[in-house]
Write a structure and sequence with these properties.
This protein is an alpha+beta fold. It has helices at about 45-55, 80-95, 100-110, 135-140, 160-185, 190-195, 205-225, and strands spanning about 10, 15-20, 30, 35-40, 45, 125, 130, 150. It has a single domain (about 40-225), classed as Orthogonal Bundle (Lysozyme), CATH 1.10.530. It is built from 7 helices and 8 strands. The protein has a two-stranded antiparallel sheet.
């Protein structure tokens, strides 16, 4: 299970703040009260995502398997994005065993077939990883269940950008590892984490079996088993 990240805030002292000059404030200076400020490292916004990906140390980076899911024309297009963000969150949360990038790739194959804007389920989920609108709200809520690390300043349309939705999905997989652990009272395997991501871990329907069959088929193909 991922280690819980302490909430990182600092108290900013009372300080002068420049504001537009007005009749009520001819000096253009007001006093800002003491307040809490969230520190870098506890959230990702679009600028941080772009910067981390661009500058990430790729030495020794583990990439998902390529050339195996030939039924999808874009199957290998996002391998670098998957590799960087899988490694980033594995290190950030210090999880053991680390998340396998092939699990992420097989998940994406099962969710969208690597289509960045699939037509299905648009009222419920969006993007290459089919992140639900409900999950999207959770990921950005500074007072919600993942308040120790949130995604900040995104719109629903941003989920159609794989460079944004893939790191969100990988983070959410780590969160689903935690919730699956709590449900099962033991460490879940990859298939159980995937089912929790899909909201089907406790389901007894045929939909659960079908979802697992599709994911398993892709994962086995990637591993060459």
């Amino acid at each position: 299970m991922a280690k819980k990240i302490p909430k990182k805030t600092t108290t900013v002292r009372e300080h002068p703040l420049h504001v537009p000059v007005s009749k009520n404030n001819p000096t253009g200076i007001t006093i800002r009260d003491r307040h809490l400020r969230r520190l870098n490292g506890t959230y990702l916004d679009s600028t941080e995502i772009e910067s981390i990906f661009k500058n990430y140390d790729r030495k020794g980076l583990v990439f998902p398997t390529k050339g195996k899911l030939k039924e999808y024309k874009n199957a290998d297009k996002y391998d670098e994005v998957i590799a960087v963000w899988t490694d980033y969150f594995n290190k950030k949360f210090n999880v053991e065993p680390p998340l396998d990038p092939d699990v992420v790739k097989a998940l994406i194959a099962s969710e969208s077939g690597f289509d960045s804007d699939p037509l299905r389920n648009r009222k419920i989920a969006l993007g290459i990883a089919q992140i639900t609108k409900k999950t999207f709200k959770v990921l950005q809520d500074p007072n919600g269940e993942v308040k120790e690390f949130i995604f900040k300043g995104f719109l629903q349309k941003d989920l159609k950008n794989p460079n944004i939705s893939i790191p969100m999905a990988i983070f959410w997989l780590h969160r689903k590892r935690e919730t699956a652990t709590n449900r099962l009272q033991r460490t879940p395997n990859y298939e159980e984490i995937i089912l929790e991501y899909k909201g089907l871990l406790n389901s007894s329907t045929k939909l659960k079996d079908k979802a697992l069959e599709v994911f398993r088929g892709h994962y086995v193909s990637l591993k060459g088993k």
